[in-house]
């Protein structure tokens, strides 16, 4: 999933004020650019306080943008997502009543009052961005736009799950501590790639935190899928392939049951790398399917192996279906700080290879 954080602040870094009215920080030109940006994403996410305070519908009003999405095979409106810890959300809010997009609510417990208005997804408390991203990705979201508020923005940044940041500042507007509400300041690393533009007086900065590596990822992931086709189908396991790419460019491959009937593809590739004396810290492992998070045939799951050996990135094509176990590999890896990338455009190939067990 590619994730962008988008927010506007005053010159003294406030996202809103203390009044009961909605504070418009953006100029018309900047706001139009934000609406065009929204149209490029599958889903938009806000926090519960933003929903309660501003009561946004989060719809695309421009028929031109809606038609552009239809032509691309997308729904006219983005999937809408809200995160709440208290669960104090009104089902009469415009978020729930306007538009026909999918609606998801992330909460630490079931919310019966909202079940008719949205899909409620329960995450462990405290709610983590890793849980949100993984659950949305399982449901087909590939591009997520996060618009706040401050706690939500900070959660994604602290967990390293933002790829790009769009920060718009209105240099003509200041509030001060007495008037200001939520305050938020983004402090990128000194070497972070950045570009600037001015839109109707707004100073807009785009920061790239994680570059797009899709071309490289798709090449190696296709190789992993090819490795999976070398497996002998078995009623009790998936046919999976894996490719390890070291920082120095060396590669190692593996597929399920390549040398032992209990070995998974990731194990096979890791074994070859270790036999060659490789240091796996900082390496990337490409697997045709989500690494397993629990198993009975070996003392460690593939997720545990990946974490123990210090991989920095994990890339796969298909989430493991709820067939043998409830796999949580992607979430566990993200929570441990490993970068996880999923390319569902290649998932059909994995399903065909595993037609003997896919449910």
CATH H level of the largest domain: which superfamily?
A: Dihydrofolate Reductase, subunit A
**CATH 2nd-level architecture of the largest domain:** 3-Layer(aba) Sandwich
Order of helices and strands: EHEHHEHEEHEHEHEEHEEHEHEHEH
Average pLDDT confidence is 95
The CATH topology annotation of the largest domain reads as Dihydrofolate Reductase, subunit A
Beta-strand proportion: 15-25%
Coarse shape = globular
* Cα radius of gyration in angstroms: 22 Å
What's the number of extended β-strand segments? Answer: 14
List segments where confidence is low: pLDDT < 50 over at least 5 consecutive residues: none
What structural category do the secondary elements indicate? alpha/beta
The tally of helices reads: 12
The largest beta-sheet arranges its strands as 5-4-3-2-6-1-7-9-8
What is the CA–CA distance across the termini?
Answer: 24 Å
- Overall tally of structural domains: 2
Helix content: 25-40%
Largest β sheet strand count, sense and barrel closure: 9 strands, mixed
> What is the CATH class of the largest domain?
Alpha Beta
General description of the model:
- The protein has helices at residues 28-38, 48-54, 63-71, 94-97, 129-138, 150-158, 176-179, 214-228, 265-275, 302-308, 329-335, 347-353, and strands at residues 2-10, 43-47, 79-83, 103-107, 119-122, 143-146, 164-170, 193-199, 202-208, 241-245, 251-255, 284-289, 313-318, 339-342.
- The chain has 359 residues and is an alpha/beta fold.
- The protein folds into two domains: 2-208, Dihydrofolate Reductase, subunit A; 214-353, 3-Layer(aba) Sandwich (Cytidine Deaminase, domain 2).
- It has a nine-stranded mixed beta sheet with strand order 5-4-3-2-6-1-7-9-8. It has a five-stranded mixed beta sheet with strand order 11-10-12-13-14.
- Helix 11 (329-335) links the parallel strand 13 and strand 14.
- The longest helix has 15 residues, at 214-228.
- The chain is globular.
